[in-house]
Design brief:
alpha/beta, TIM Barrel, 268 residues, nine-stranded parallel beta sheet
Length: 268
């Protein structure tokens, strides 16, 4: 059983859900990313999602796009991702780590080498947002060999037959996209997202997480009530710290305080 599966099994015992914060690796530098991860884990993060910076992040909204630009402008390389993961593992962080990436950086490094280095550093899973499962046979094989879960995205437009296929290709958890379009904090969880969550949860044999727009505790509670086993938050966290990067301790404190409130909402 994978580290991610162990987290969900443990949480199901007390009726709570997982809080999964997303950050862009290397924004604005490696040291800040490491400290941010430590703060998020101290606040109760159950699983971590690390975004690998990419120059053309078509699935991401302005907050994450800017974070990737800051990281890349600072000279971030793929090897730095593995260095960050190794560093936090050496510091005692045990939460499973999902790497969110576009396919191009993985292809440039080499699929086998990327999976090997991610596993060696202490990573647990891959979410490749622009690679359909029909074209990911090599990635799936290499990931399985290195005991990495493959996370799949479910969009609002996904048909039932396509949904069943994606579930069959998933491990760790299913990532439900709450709205059509790009990432970004939103004020409410739309009724369409609630309906989609219920539809996916009723058909899935793996835990279901929801992301894209999650930014308030009320949204967390609504998602869990609709069947979510986890909530994923990114843009709000990035906005909180990016406004205070000239005062890093304040930025870290703000993120930790918000993350504690979000985690508290996962226990109904």
């Amino acid at each position: 059983m994978s580290g991610i599966s162990n987290v969900f099994r443990s949480l199901s015992g007390d009726g709570s859900a997982a809080y999964i914060p997303y950050i862009c690796a290397g924004d604005p530098d490696r040291d800040f990313s490491v400290e941010l991860i430590k703060r998020l884990c101290a606040a109760g993060a159950d699983i971590l999602e690390l975004g690998l910076p990419f120059s053309d992040p078509i699935a991401d909204g302005p907050a994450i796009q800017r974070s990737m630009q800051r990281s890349l402008s600072g000279g971030f390389k793929v090897a730095d991702l593995f260095a960050i993961i190794s560093s936090i593992r050496e510091s005692g962080i045990v939460q499973p780590i999902v790497v969110m990436s576009y396919f191009n950086p993985i292809l440039q490094i080499g699929i086998e080498e990327f999976c090997r280095d991610l596993s060696k550093a202490g990573g647990d899973a891959l979410l490749v947002v622009d690679l359909p499962p029909e074209e990911s046979e090599t990635l799936e094989r290499m990931a399985r060999e290195k005991e990495l879960d493959i996370i799949r995205l479910i969009a609002p437009s996904t048909s039932d037959s396509r949904l069943d296929y994606l579930i069959s290709k998933s491990s760790g958890f299913i990532y439900v996209v709450s709205v059509a379009g790009i990432t970004g904090a939103r004020d409410v969880l739309p009724e369409s997202a609630i309906s989609l969550l219920r539809r996916v949860a009723s058909r899935s044999n793996v835990p279901v997480a929801i992301g894209f727009g999650i930014s308030h505790p009320d949204q967390v509670r609504a998602a869990i009530a609709a069947g979510a086993s986890a909530v994923i938050e990114g843009s709000k966290l990035i906005s909180l710290y990016s406004e205070n990067l000239d005062k890093r301790e304040i930025a870290l404190d703000m993120v930790e305080m918000h993350a504690r409130d979000m985690k508290a909402a996962t226990s109904l």
